[in-house]
């Protein structure tokens, strides 16, 4: 049996110590960089442009239902036990090394609104709204905004609507639908001052077709703000085959790791007006905090895993812990300068 095969067997039995799992993850990351690199800058650019061309020939997204199964249709209680107060299932921002997860959630949400130029009274669409961290934040802090969230998950919609009722927010609506299929947001204005998308693009393929669709929901002077995690120069698909593609197989089937500049190649319908980078160590610390919450609440979480995965609960306990470890190691690699978060601000052409 290969070393990777032995590691998988240990993992499935939840018998792999964290230090060994982390070493294995770092090894896979270094191998990924070797695989993606080319001998010359010319060849590196040829490979990159070939990937761009390939994405432009794809559907907007593939394996959408698989993404739901892997993340978003687990009982909401699982995520309430692992995420912060705002239920932000994406990178947070740590203004100080000792900041709490709750404070880091608030800092990143505040940053989005500042960078997007959000003003009270705007109509706002939150694409891929998760458990409503951004939608609820805007509804609370910008009470004159009309906020619409688009979710691909019924459980997420039910949770967000419940939170809105509990807090008395009258300015928030949630629509359930698949971004690849939906054309009109029924019963709601289809023209927005600001559209925001936080870690949805990673599940997409043809960004050109996606941005074309989004542009039709933007007012003439509307803006689009995108948060996407990325590598500093490489583009690759999350594959499912082979021992080194564990993340693609269990957590990001159909997804894409974009490069820092990837969306700049898809400007037919929107025009890039500003870009920012967020050091990967912020995401690494976010995932370390998720793991700490997971371990702190492990007894309650085990009950949820048993009800969800049945006889495979032990394996999936290990898989979820490994997911958090993998995210932490990915974004902490090379001191957060290799993989990190990119922010884009577009206007409509």
TrEMBL record:
<dbReference type="Pfam" id="PF02353">
    <property type="entry name" value="CMAS"/>
</dbReference>
<dbReference type="InterPro" id="IPR029063">
    <property type="entry name" value="SAM-dependent_MTases_sf"/>
</dbReference>
<comment type="similarity">
    <text>Belongs to the CFA/CMAS family.</text>
</comment>
<protein>
    <recommendedName>
        <fullName>Cyclopropane-fatty-acyl-phospholipid synthase</fullName>
    </recommendedName>
</protein>
């Amino acid at each position: 049996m290969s070393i990777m095969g032995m590691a998988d067997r240990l993992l499935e039995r939840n018998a792999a110590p964290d230090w060994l799992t982390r070493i294995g993850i770092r090894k896979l990351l270094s191998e990924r960089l070797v695989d993606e690199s080319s001998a010359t800058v010319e060849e590196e650019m040829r490979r990159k442009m070939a990937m761009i061309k390939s994405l432009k020939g794809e559907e907007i997204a593939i394996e959408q239902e698989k993404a739901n199964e892997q993340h978003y249709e687990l009982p909401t209680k699982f995520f309430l036990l692992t995420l912060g107060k705002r239920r932000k299932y994406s990178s947070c921002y740590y203004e100080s090394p000792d900041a709490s997860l709750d404070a880091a959630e608030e800092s990143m949400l505040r940053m989005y609104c500042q960078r997007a130029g959000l003003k009270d009274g705007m109509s706002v669409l939150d694409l891929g709204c998760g458990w409503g961290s951004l939608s609820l934040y805007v509804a609370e802090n910008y009470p004159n905004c009309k906020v619409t969230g688009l979710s691909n998950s019924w459980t997420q919609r039910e949770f967000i609507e419940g939170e809105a009722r509990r807090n008395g927010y009258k300015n928030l609506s949630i629509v359930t639908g698949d971004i690849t299929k939906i054309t009109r947001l029924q019963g709601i204005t289809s023209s927005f001052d600001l559209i925001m998308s936080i870690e949805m693009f990673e599940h997409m393929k043809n960004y050109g077709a996606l941005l074309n669709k989004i542009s039709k929901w933007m007012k003439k002077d509307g803006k689009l703000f995108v948060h996407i995690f990325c590598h500093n120069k490489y583009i690759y698909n999350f594959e499912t085959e082979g021992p080194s593609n564990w993340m693609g197989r269990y957590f990001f089937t159909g997804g894409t790791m974009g490069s820092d500049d990837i969306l700049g190649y898809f400007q037919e319908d929107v025009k890039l007006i500003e870009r920012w980078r967020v050091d990967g160590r912020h995401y690494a610390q976010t995932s370390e905090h998720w793991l700490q919450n997971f371990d702190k609440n492990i007894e309650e979480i085990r009950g949820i895993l048993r009800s969800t995965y049945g006889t495979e609960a032990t394996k999936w306990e290990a898989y979820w812990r490994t997911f958090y470890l993998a995210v932490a190691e990915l974004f902490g690699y090379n001191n957060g300068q290799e993989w990190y978060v990119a922010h884009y601000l577009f206007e409509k052409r």
